[in-house]
Sequence to fold (438 residues):
Amino acid sequence: MQPIRIGILGVGTVGGGVVKLLQNNADEVARRLGRKVVITRAADRNTDHAQRLCDSTVAVTDNINDVVNADDVDIVVELIGGSTISKEAVIRAIQNGKHVVTANKKLLAEHGNELFRLAELQNVMLMFEAAVAGGIPIIKALREGLAANHIQSIAGIINGTSNFILSEMRAHGSAFADVLKEAQDLGYAEADPTFDIEGHDAAHKLSIMSALAFGTPINFNQCYMEGISRLESQDIRYAEELGYRIKLLGITRKTENGIELRVHPTLIPTGRLLANVEGVMNAVLVQADMVQETLYYGPGAGAAATASAVVADIIDISRLLDAASDNRVPYLAFQPYQMQAIPVLDMGDITSGYYLRVCAKDEPGVLGEIANILANEQISIEALIQKGVISHETAEIVILTHTTQEKQIQAAIANIEALPRVFPSVIMIRMESLHGGK
Ligand code: HSE
Fold:
């Protein structure tokens, strides 16, 4: 059989990983596929560097068109990142009838609906296993392995940089800014770490998973995002004392009224496996009606792990090249004509447990006033501790609530902050038991 011919766009960390994998594991890949996979072309701004990584048979260029327009390329692998040049390149590749593999979650989160429509029109495959949770085959699991289920919810640690920072803050009691610097020195966090620490990267990945789970268009624009940059180390410590760990979770859940789609720091019980995912590792917990809970754990980034996912997609496409398009796995798991526009819930309408930290005068009756406000909003208290006097006459009170609607906790917080003996501001962190999809 003729080899499958690959054109790579971007020979950086992940692109270099793909080149290396296809060199080192060439025989194993060919044993599985029944034919060889060869890179014929590669485009990168730094052609010297790219040529050094690639075999001498690879035509290296700094012009993307030399790859996407080439007759000797069957599959274009987009590893440029961002959503401008990459979008143009992917569109051109699709229009030229090339199948595409991308690791680009930003591109798919922002423009996936349009790109999948175009791919369908052009009858080409567009695969993206590497876009979510790096080396974990979570796209395959959601799209194929769990295809017999109604998926109910997904909760994931899907940003390794944030998870590393939270793990270090907990282990050493360090402040956020200090650990961020450490993460940058270690090369985990970008020089501009906003995307990782403010939840954008996790939101990109979550909105892709949500679409796959529920058969809806990708709803990234409606995803709630709250990062970890404002977390204080004492909240991590208090949570630990109460039997919880704080993780940056991406959560999507199908309810009767719509879909929850949110990324934020979350308290989860220490005994849950997800709470024990440390450092840069990723994990995704999926709740579905038949299988109940399944958990997927592994490296969410890194050249080799991400290349593993990219090449798996190349193998999948190669196997289906001659299959009728009706027999392909749908891009977003459901037949395109079966996609449903389910509304994304406003944050006020989601339900969650809540951790509140209130700073107040240490005087008789203050606790009673706070408890009254919660009771008036029908909010039930799960635990309440006074963390002692932090300065003369000032106490910190930590409250955990049972599940309630977010608009009720917001109303309660506003009323608590209005109490004359409470100091601004009340700290609020959401809390999930992760049992039964809740
Ligand atoms: N920057 C991401 C992370 C990896 O920290 O997990 C790539 O998605």
Summary: The pocket of L-homoserine is lined by residues 159-161, 196, 201, 300-301 (CB under 6 Å). Residues 386 and 397 are 4 Å apart (CA to CA). The mean pLDDT is 95. The domain at 4-127 is CATH 3.40.50.720 (Rossmann fold).
